[in-house]
Amino acid sequence: MKKIFIIGLFCSYILNTSFISQNNTAGNLTVSVSTIRNNKGEIEFALFNKSEGFARDTKKAIKIVRGPVNNGNCSVVFENIPYGQYAVCIYHDENNNKKIDDTWYGMPTEGVGVSNNPKSGGFSPPTFEAAKFKFEPTQNSISIKIKYL
How many Å apart are CA 51 and CA 19, to the nearest integer? Predict the structure, then answer.
């Protein structure tokens, strides 16, 4: 009886470690924004795992999540994201028209931001390289500063 108990414990340990290691390949990424200038519309968050389209074409994002503005803040969760390198770009869609409004010369009239909060270089948005961060079990939330031009 003692041998069966020990074998049972050993098998249980093996199954649990196997299950835990499978679950450590992905997690939930929380992204928050504060100092939003009003409670109109929503914030759109676009998650990228490569530079193609970053901060220019959200159709190339691997996931897009929208969240409501509440008292100048907004947080969303990207669920079940594989751990790795990512960058996030956001914009404040104040009029809920699902696009970034801009001036005739291309400057956004709604708030924008990217992960790592790098300084932008004039008329160009920051690069994926400047905005990328490592998403892992110990680093599973980021904060983005929104800028209104």
Answer: 33
